[in-house]
Amino acid sequence: MKRWMAFIVLMLFVLGMMGYGIYFYREEQIEKSKAPVRGEITVYTDLPNNLTTLLADKYLEDKNVKVNIMPLTEEQMEQRVSSKLVDSSGDVVITSEDNLVIGASKDKFAPIVNERIDEVLDRLKDSNGYWVGLWYDPIVFVQNESFYNKLGQHITTWDTLQKPGNWRVVMTDFGASQNAANLLYNLVEYKGEPDALADLLALKTHVIQHSKFLSTPVRLTALGESDIGIGNLSDAQQYIRHSYPVKMIYPSDGTSFYITGAAVQKDSKHKNESIEFITWLLSSETAKYMMNNNFTYIFANPEVTEPVDALGRSVVLWPVNGGYTVEGKELLLNHWVSQVRFRKDQ
Questions:
Q1: Bridge partners, 255 (sequence order)
Q2: Lowest mean pLDDT among 62-71, 175-184, 196-205, 285-294
Q3: Residue 152 DSSP symbol
Q4: C-alpha triplet 139, 144, 148: angle, nearest 5°
Q5: Between 234 and 17, whose confidence is greater?
Q6: Which end of the chain is more exposed for a tag (fewer CB within 10 A), N or C?
Q7: Nearest to 95 by CA among 56, 31, 43, 164
Q8: pLDDT score for 82
């Protein structure tokens, strides 16, 4: 009986401590909710809503500053940064490098400089401080593990990928999104249009599907329906973290990458608060928070460790500048469609 009494007393003590902990936590949350919001900024972005909501909620929790997210489509964002007639209200723009370059050329942004931004590599930011890259997503080869163990370890360059062989490749249709088409634009800038289209035509013999969504090449490769998926590092890392049978390979002859960055609107009434928010986005703590929530990129903050591929190698990026105009993009896409995608003599 004494043993049971001791056990009961112990359980009551544990339950009491748990109850006190829950009460203390609730009181703390109530006090936080009573605290006046320290500030408020408005962010225009074409990023996915699940990511922007995650970041806005975390910033409110960390800094007690409310971030109003104004979601735009890719087309709306292109128009916003390229036209002088479009409304330029708001404080911060978060979008692709191409859009940021265009916006800077149209005098839409205010220069931003501080110690954190200064640490970002020059190739990931504007030389005059009008925008800064937050993270980038390189194109990788995602190989099914069984293929990797047999032949895949030798398919590590764009050149070997297009050689004769019986491997199956899935890639995203360049017309599906700006992110997908970025591979075409970067390849043309790096190699010139004739060589770039010739390479894509040679690769076409292996392509069994041009998917509509960015994640599809990785997913089909993970399921064994393709040997190689040409996709984003961010999608590859999610499948690897969930133990799917895939290997990620960085092309050793370099690869395309899609920079996501931020700028402060020239007419912003909250410039200091906007710069504080961008600085927070560049922090290693924010990068860790994003990765813990399955948003895995290569972050512009040099303190954040870059992922290596299955062969233990770091990514090699093509020396491209980006900043392609809307008209230039449309012309290249039309050439790809007519000379590669739907070429009749293939």
A1: 317
A2: 175-184
A3: G
A4: 95
A5: 234
A6: N
A7: 43
A8: 87
Give all strands (DSSP E) within 109-211, no chain letters. 109-110, 132-144, 169-172, 207-211
Q: In this structure, what token pair is assigned to residue 90?
A: 């708001």
Provide, for the chain, the percentages of residues in helix, strand and coil under a 3-state DSSP scheme, each rounded to the nearest 5: 45, 20, 35
Residue 106 — φ and ψ, nearest 5°? -95, 10
Mean pLDDT taken over the chain: 90
DSSP annotation string for 39-67: EEEEEEE-S-HHHHHHHHHHHHHHH-EEE
Distance CA 158, CA 172 (A): 16
Question: Which tokens is 85 given?
Answer: 């007639």
State the Cα–Cα distance between residues 147 and 307, nearest whole angstrom. 22
Amino acid at position 176, single letter: A
Residue 170's contacts (CB-CB under 8 Å, 6 or more residues apart) are 207, 208, 209, 211, 216, 217, 220, 221, 225, 226, 228, 229, 230
Confidence at residue 247, expressed as pLDDT on a 0 to 100 scale: 97
3-state secondary structure of 172: strand
Convert the pLDDT of each residue in 97-151 to its tens digit. Answer: 999 999 999 999 999 988 989 999 999 999 999 999 999 999 999 999 999 999 9
Q: Which amino acid is residue 175, in one-letter code?
A: G
Can you give the pLDDT at residue 83? 83
Name every residue whose Cβ is closer than 8 Å to that of residue 263 and which is 6 or more positions away in sequence: 92, 93, 100, 103, 104, 108, 109, 110, 112, 130, 131, 132
* 9: pLDDT strictly greater than 70: no
